[in-house]
Structure formats: structure tokens, C-alpha cells
Amino acid sequence: MMSFVRGSYRLLILALLESSMMYGYQILKILEGTTGQRPKISTLYSILKDMEEDGFLRSRMEKAKRIYQLTEKGRKTLNEFRSKLGDGALRIITLLMGFRVSSP
């Protein structure tokens, strides 16, 4: 189960940063509250570093803390994921939660 959650971190981070900039610790706490799993700090910062190197995020130092912000590439990637997934996401979640799924 943990690897499924871990695989979702990148998309969750993009979604979290869509509305506001955040420090790594803020991201960590929200991920923990959302998924019920606390990622290792080293794992989180490795993901953030990779995402920044890939152009999905940018960061800057502010009051001795690094603050992360979504880039246009990150926003585009998140929107593309949402448009491709569409209503399918609701059907997948419904199925995973054990609710009855009607045929299309």
C-alpha cells in the first residue's frame, strides 16, 4: 500500500502547490494528513529536488527556509492529468472504496 501512496506524491504535490506556495514541512504535514502515511523527510526532499530539476517546481530561500512554487510546466502537467483522467477518476475511486459501479 505504501508504494501506491508514494507513487502519488508527485501529483499530490503539484495539486497542493496549485493554490499557494509552501515550505517542505507544510507539504509533509498535508501529505501525511491526506494519505495517512508520513513520507520520510529525505524522500520528500528528494522528490521536490527532482521535480524542480524537471521544471515542475521552483524554489527560493525565504527566512532560512526553502519555499516551493508550481511552475507553468507543473500547472500544465497537472491540468493534462486531470483532463485525461476526467470522470474515470471518480469511477476508480468508487470501485476502490467498494461501492457498486454501474456499467457505462
Word description of this protein:
It is built from 4 helices and 3 strands, in the order H-E-H-H-E-E-H. It has 104 residues and is of the alpha+beta class. The chain has a single domain (2-96), classed as Orthogonal Bundle (Arc Repressor Mutant, subunit A), CATH 1.10.10. A 3-stranded antiparallel β-sheet has the order 1-3-2.
CATH fold assignment: Arc Repressor Mutant, subunit A
Helix segment count? Answer: 4
Instruction: Indicate the percent of residues in helices.
Output: 55-70%
User: Quick one: CATH class?
Assistant: Mainly Alpha
Number of domains: 1
> How do the SSEs run, as a string of H and E?
HEHHEEH
CATH superfamily caption = Winged helix-like DNA-binding domain superfamily/Winged helix DNA-binding domain
Q: What structural class should be given to the helix and strand makeup?
A: alpha+beta
Can you give the mean pLDDT?
A: 83
Strand % is 5-15%
Low-confidence stretches: 1-5
CATH architecture type: Orthogonal Bundle
| Radius of gyration of CA atoms, rounded to a whole number | 15 Å
- What is the count of β-strands? 3
